[in-house]
Design a protein that fits this description.
Elements: H1 11-24, H2 28-58, H3 64-71
Length: 72
């Protein structure tokens, strides 16, 4: 099932969306869908990361490099 959503964009952003979708050979809708999928995935990653931060810090995992060293 699909849901139609109307979004208002500033002129410049709308032109950028049109240009990008034309260049990529896709629709504006697909560009927006993919952007939302990525936005939600990044948001979920940040939530998970935040929830694990205290435990990670207690184990001395303060940076991404610390994590990579631990799992390598």
């Amino acid at each position: 099932m699909r849901r139609t959503v109307t979004v208002s964009l500033p002129e410049e952003l709308g032109e950028e969306l049109d240009s990008f979708s034309t260049r990529e050979g896709t629709t504006r809708s697909e560009v927006v869908r993919e952007a939302l999928r990525r936005y939600f995935a990044v948001d979920e990653f940040r939530k998970i990361r935040r929830s694990l931060l205290t435990e990670a810090e207690a184990k001395g995992l303060l940076t991404d490099e610390d994590v990579f060293r631990q799992i390598s």
